[in-house]
Amino acid sequence: MTEVNDTLPDVTVADSAGNAVNLAGLQGPFVLYFYPKADTPGCTNEAKDFKELASDFSALGCPVYGMSKDKPAKLAKFAAKYALNVHLLSDEASDATEQMGAWVEKSMYGKLYMGIDRSTYLVGKDGKVAQLWRKVKVKDHAAEVLAAAKGL
Length: 152
What we know:
By secondary structure, the chain is an alpha+beta fold.
């Protein structure tokens, strides 16, 4: 499980165009947020909130990456549908999701299942996690992450 002061695991995922992206190779500062599924209400609102603040993150030199288990083609469609300007990553194999602790047991209507914990990692210039949010509530979250990024 990735915690504050840890580096991201040496895991390669795909971006929405199918290009390989190694998490350990990303240069900080940046934001990496996990969301359960593209084009669902909560995930869409979260992506739109980060989109609205993208220029503010960019001014800090802090790109935003969103990750789910969706296939790259679905991510590309999602990004096009909402004109998203964040980098969407696909972790179909669950390697990053599991290693970072975002793959958790959930419960709905008394039924247990495994799913993505909506969580966000703010990575500093040194490549280490500077701040971590788990069990994220979407409302005002992107603004909270931006405020933390300004403090790096």
